[in-house]
Amino acid sequence: MTKITLTGQLIQYLFTGVTVGSIYAMVAVGFNIIYNVTDIINFAQGEFVMLGGLIMVFFTVTAKLPLPLAFVLTVAAVTGVGVLMERFTINPLKNASVLTMIIVTIAVSILFKGIAMFVWGKDPYIFPPFSGSKPLFFYGAAIQTQALWVLFMTAVMVVLMTIFYKKTRYGKAMLACADNPEAARLVGIKVNIMILISFALSAAIGAVAGAVITPISLMEYDRGALLALKGFGAAVLGGLGSFYGAVVAGIFLGIIESMCAGLVSSGYKDAVALILLLLVLYVRPSGLFGNVEASKIKEF
Amino acid sequence: MRSSNRKALLGLTLFLILFPVVAMNVTAIGHYLDIMIFVGIYCLINMGLSLLMGYAGQISLGHAAFFGLGAYTSGILCTKFSMSPWLAMVAGVGITGLVAYIVGVPSLKLKGHYLAMATLGFGVIVQIFFNEEVSLTGGPSGFSDIPGLSILGFSLDNDLCYYILVWFLVLLTLIFSLNVIHSRIGRALRSLHDSEVAADAMGVETSRYKIIIFVLSGVYASIAGSLYTHYVGFLSPSSFDFFLSIKLVMMVVVGGMHNIWGALLGTWLLTFLGYEWLHVFRDFDILVYGAILLGVVMFLPDGLVALVPRMSRVWKRG
Amino acid sequence: MNTESSPVFLHVENLEKSFGGVQALKGLSFKVPQGIIKAIIGPNGAGKTTLFNVITGILPPNGGAIALNGISIEGRKAREIARLGVSRTFQNVEVFGRMTVLENVMVGRHIQSRAGIISTGFRLPGMRREERQIRENAMQHLTFVGLENRATELAGNLPLGEQKLLEVARALATDPKMLLLDEPAGGLNTRETEGLAALIHRILEQGITVVLVEHDMNLVMDISDEIMVMNFGEKIAEGKPKQIKNDPLVIEAYLGEEVDYSDL
Ligand SMILES: Nc1ncnc2c1ncn2[C@@H]1O[C@H](COP(=O)(O)OP(=O)(O)O)[C@@H](O)[C@H]1O
Ligand SMILES: [Mg+2]
């Protein structure tokens, strides 16, 4: 057995943190996409990740499809779920109170969880990593190749989303909705469609997160809630609505958590993220990176 | 008190008196008494939640934590420190009330989604605490041998006695809550719902009442927790998890959150569903819960209790 | 009434309020002597409602001073200002729609009562006595504005005119020293407006200072002791009704275009 050095250990924690943090980042971005257009926090956001993981298991392990095809089908399926959710629960409830919207998305999340349990049962599932399970060694730290896939996918997501918002017609229209829905309506943007796209997009990002993390952390039906909570923590930390803020904060949260688990106490690692969330909410609800005045700024 | 409330209270009391008589004589539903005790315990929590959600307009996704704090305080003080259960219950109320106040002051400054997430986070933190502080709480496997309750040397450890105790407290709490609703405090809270600026202009201290109701609802949950502990005799963190918080909100919403009677109705219905009628679905009860909740919010936003006047109108018409 | 000799009740000095780029109040200064009816007139968007919102603490000012009987109140919370004796009605009625008419007025008694959670929950004797007083007092105020027959109806179901009266009753129930009325005659017919004028006089007789924002010039000229004219967040004229009627600036800025002059 090779001797594990302290540096090696720290690098290991750091890397694990960045990996897990990338998932939080993707959940946080998912929250923001919907929040920006609708002012709704989708409590079912974590369920998209859970579904992404489990559906990927179905396509790779059960249906034995080749990985790229399984990946595409998974993302498509979860996107469809997001679209259905918007059509059947969000869209009919125009002008509902915040309290009602919270409860509706909670109801949907319970429903998804229930369906997942119905289909897959309570056991955790896994499928083989994208490029084998032989780890890479780096300054004494063992790094799973799948973690690199997680980072790669996060980077791809950041690039694609940036292009989407900065360059495409729909992306620009969504930003306009975020700034001022009334004005957007007046210039002929179909806000309805934008809301639908926001759900589709954030479901797709959730699916990607679920599909890449499952070979590392496994996936089971009730993983969604905690993921949503931490993803929300990241979104708030980064300033609700801020795209890059969410990415940075998600990774930051992952690192803190992983360091705490490794160096202090693994039992309290979940609590750390949540305590941080509460502190930020209490002290600086505009987020660590947002300024207080512009807490509603929706800049990407 | 209003005459409609008085009638409903009378009806409820009659039902509560008749229920054990019937249940204990029909073997098929003999165990319903046991379920009714749990219904009563959850009713205690949900009356507070109804005040908070339906009247003060604030959401809490962390009420299982207050329930758990009451339960653990009672359990720990009685077993590890041999304190009298009643004293422990009071201590639980004190501790939970204090925690509710400390959490409530900053949390209730938050609105909507932020408040929901903050209370959710708080609930999960408390559950992690129950899991991790093994020396105090017994960790994930919890601890048992918690003594039952007795009054003046008379033990309450049979279902009927406990049923009477629990439901007596429920009725007391219900009357207390109805009195609060129909007082200047209740009016202040309702006014806030209809027009916050007018309430402000009339001098209503909106934030103060939100906090008072939050603490009150924490206290209700704490008492429920103590009753729960002494009834089941053992504790583990899984009884106070985040899904319970969600289920509590669900009971209130399904019954109708703008009406404290709705909270009772929803609690009764969903508890019986969970303990008895959903056994057909065994593990898939979550699916049914989700569907019920979604159906009610989408199609019956004022909850099942809103059907009562409609039904009585149809009934009167013949 | 001789307004010069009465002590100043409300003193506003250099008040500023802006919304983003819009300056709704630009260094506004004026005084309201105790026990008079002061009308504030001016075209839509002049900043009259904003002035009320800032005085009552609904909105914080960006600068300037407001003193009530010599006590400075600018930037204080609405509930503190209500306790100092300022009450108001709203231009776009803000009744508590899902509460009964009587309950609406009972909310007005909030600051004059003190029962806490324990005494209300257990209905202790002190609380019952207080509750009875609240109810009686509220009923008196409903009778005062002539809504006693509506007591048990839902406030949201009343016609607009009665909702406006209800707001007056609710505001009076706080036992104010000064009452701010924001376009109380808006949407009322001639007969109702006459009733309103009588009502405002009766309020004045109770020793309550009245500040009135109103577009109905007959009403304003008829009942006010002093008039202030605003435009674009500034005071453009102030004086007795007669002076205002003949002020060329006022006629140009406001009266000329909005109201038929011969009407005055
Ligand atoms: N809450 C607000 N937010 C932004 N602008 C406002 C707000 N309230 C008033 N304004 C603006 O301030 C100006 C004065 O409005 P207001 O006080 O309502 O005028 P008035 O009551 O004299 O008709 C208007 O330009 C109005 O658009
Ligand atoms: Mg106005």
Explained architecture:
The complex is a heterotrimer of chains A (about 300), B (about 325) and C (about 260). Chain A is mainly α. Chain A has a domain of about 200 residues. Chain A has 11 helices and 2 strands. In chain A, strand 1 and strand 2 form a beta hairpin. In chain A, helix 1 runs parallel beside helix 5, helix 2 runs antiparallel to helix 3 and helix 5 crosses helix 6. The termini of chain A are far apart. The C terminus of chain A is likely disordered. By secondary structure, chain B is mostly helical. The longest helix of chain B is centred in the C-terminal third of the chain and has 27 residues. Chain B contains 14 helices and 2 strands. Chain B is globular, with a radius of gyration of 19 Å. Chain B has one domain. In chain B, strand 1 and strand 2 form a beta hairpin. Chain C folds into 2 domains: about 170 residues, Rossmann fold, CATH 3.40.50.300; about 80 residues, no CATH class. Chain C is about 40% helix and about 25% strand. The longest helix of chain C is centred in the middle third of the chain and has 21 residues. The C terminus of chain C is likely disordered. Adenosine-5'-diphosphate binds next to strand 2 and helix 1 of chain C.
What is the gist of this entry?
The complex is a heterotrimer of chains A (300), B (318) and C (264). Chain A is mainly alpha-helical. Chain A has helices spanning 6-38, 45-62, 67-90, 98-120, 145-167, 169-179, 181-186, 191-217, 224-237, 243-263, 269-283, and strands at 136-138, 141-143.
Strand content of chain A: under 5%
Strand order of the largest sheet of chain A: 1-2
- The portion of residues forming beta strands of chain C comes to 15-25%
Distance between the termini of chain A: 47 Å
* Proper CATH architecture of the largest domain in chain C: 3-Layer(aba) Sandwich
The parts of chain A where pLDDT drops under 50 for at least 5 residues are 291-300
Number of strands of chain A: 2
